[in-house]
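QA checklist item 7 of 12: single-chain prediction sanity check.
[x] sequence parsed
[x] length recorded as 188
[x] structure emitted
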Amino acid sequence: IEMLKDIQWIGTEKVDSENLNFYYDGNHVSYLGHTDKSVFSGEKKEWLDAMITPEFESIFEQIFGDKEAVIHGELLGPKIQSNLYDVSDFKFYAFDIYNKTDNVFWRQEIIEQYAQMLGFERTPIAVAGTLDEIEELVRSAPASKVNPGIEMEGIVIRPVKELKNGKNERIIYKVKVADLLGRNARRI
């Protein structure tokens, strides 16, 4: 990890909610949770089904053409993690875009642009800097950018210039308040 110490990292707020992915097969959009066994029911399913309109699919087509892609993110809302962020309706926060056809994750700086086109939020960028600077910020237990009435759970960091490990996997780390301070985030 010493060789990673002085490079520049970008950190987004780790949002504590329900994992949701929008999958585009080159023609149509569907949604799935963290695993194939994840089930969305009731109000969540109604909200998700209402999202996938012909206009919504048309925006995916404009962005990805006929390429397979996944937008990874978190669903916030009533009855999700006790509605920690106090949102009145469901909201989707995108944190990654994966072009599955080309096996490429899109650069972090363009995720917000495409999230906005689709009517999503982007997980807030919390910090850019070295590992020491990021550790200092997390140790300060900063307020959430999604809901300033609570502390951030943590930050997900990745190098500004993507790096991969020996298994050709992206280098990404989660730095949580609980890990550094020995306690979970709390309401402010």
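[x] summary fact logged: The helical segments are 42-51, 54-64, 108-117, 131-139, 177-181.
[ ] second reviewer sign-off
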